[in-house]
Amino acid sequence: MQYMDGFEGPPPYIHIEQNEFLFRKHKKQKEEDIAVCECKYKPDSPASVCGEGCLNVLTSTECTPCYCPCGIYCRNQRFQNRAYAKTKLFKTEGRGWGLLADEEIKAGQFIIEYCGEVISWKEGRRRAQAYEAAGLKDAFIISLNSHESIDATRKGSLARFINHSCQPNCETRKWTVLGEVRVGIFAKHDILPNTELSYDYNFEWYGGVKVRCLCGAPCCAGFLGAKSRGFQEDTYLWEDDDERYSVENIPLYDSEEDVPASKLLRITDSSTDGFNLLGKQSQLMTINGNLDIIPSSIEPIFAQPLQSVLMEDARMVDIKTEPSEDAKMYSPDADQSLANKNVTVSHIRSNSACRNYYIKSSPLSNKKRAKIYSGGRLKNLTQEFDVKLVSQLLPSEEAQEEILACEEAKKAATSQLDSLYDEIRPAIEEHEKDSQDSVSTAVAEKWIGATCSKLKAEFNLYFNTIKHISAAPKGVAPVLALQNETN
Ligand SMILES: C[S@@+](CC[C@H](N)C(=O)[O-])C[C@H]1O[C@@H](n2cnc3c(N)ncnc32)[C@H](O)[C@@H]1O
């Protein structure tokens, strides 16, 4: 994403409105598992249909379309229908971006779903550490259930912008929707328009970095997610009077570098897909890379601390946004910028061990492909040489043994990597290339390890060969050169 005159928006992300499953497929609900309520549609009281008394509502389960006795009148399909409240994105002072109510919201109302990438708990931990190592201070990982998390760092809904408060007006609730658990943000009490939405991250948040809380509530816990499982497992055990749990003993970060709010204005209408970012200038780039023209007279929004959340005087403008497609949302620039900023797991993965092992589609011409690939696998493009022959040319027995041992180690590492391919072949075939993002974390870890071992073994072989050749008497090198030419 690009902004005029150096104005910066939030780091780019892909806007999605349903969870994406990275490590498993979306569950398929079996017919026998569908919970059917006993509600009946009465024309004289439509508001009673699938309301508080509905058996499914009571168990936080959404009704399944076609199975609910109330048919199209069912009101218990809010996640499925994306029955979101109207919200707007805005720039806060010191807490990055936040989300405002853009209409009156009633107590208990479903506001928005927290969407992102569904990953394992272990992967969540790993990512949190990788994000922290990469200097990303905004945390977007929340827990979904005992073994899975939702990571909205790279992909997410507008809910990813809801900030924490120790005295929040919203809360997260988990609902079962078509057999899958989903996380929704719900109003704890009535919320007036232009009020910042917030929930308590304490039991949800999984940020690696300790961030000083700026919610301003009298009961403020001091920093974010202090009671969350991630926080506790990561660093500290939560115990009253535990002196480790004090601001002084914990390295704190401000949530972002303070950018004067007067420089920025961001306005979003959650009723549309995607969002726009606006600077003082009349032009802006949407996240999907389209250039929109906006009147330059719009005043910036000034955010108040959460204590004074009502923002009646703020002038806001709704900007119509184009429906976004994932592919468009992530412009090459945005992708590049995110890749530079976040040394993410997939970044590490794809740089460390991919063999570009294309099964079907490939940008290469057939001719070029045929030259490089052999039986579907990428040929070793480095110049091979006859190690045995080279060793015989070396005068010292010790040197000979060393490079033969290196050759053996290289063979062993290569065969270990090759045998791993049998394990990952189905994923490679499904995704048409050998990206480690397409296999489970456990396999990817083995894959990275095996690739590193192979690279190390190759390096040792070449290094020792060069070392011994350069130490050998004159004449050995030309013989080797000749031998290489004849190969
Ligand atoms: C889920 S994101 C919320 C959106 C974020 N403000 C942004 O600009 O993308 C969580 C991050 O926002 C910041 N944040 C949220 N609530 C905060 C608070 N009460 N005080 C300080 N920083 C906060 C922290 O950096 C936190 O890691």
Automatic annotation (TrEMBL):
GO terms for cellular component: chromosome; nucleus. Keywords: Chromosome, Methyltransferase, Nucleus, S-adenosyl-L-methionine, Transferase. Residues 85-202 form the SET domain. Residues 209-225 form the Post-SET domain. Its main location: nucleus. GO terms for molecular function: histone methyltransferase activity. Transmembrane segments: none annotated. SMART domains: AWS (SM00570), SET (SM00317). Pfam families: AWS (PF17907), SET (PF00856). InterPro entries: AWS_dom (IPR006560), Post-SET_dom (IPR003616), SET2_Histone-Lys_MeTrsfase (IPR050777), SET_dom (IPR001214), SET_dom_sf (IPR046341). The keyword S-adenosyl-L-methionine applies. Residues 32-83 form the AWS domain. It is found in: Chromosome; Nucleus. GO terms for biological process: methylation. PANTHER family: SET DOMAIN PROTEINS (PTHR22884). This is Histone-lysine N-methyltransferase ASHH1. It comes from Aristolochia fimbriata.
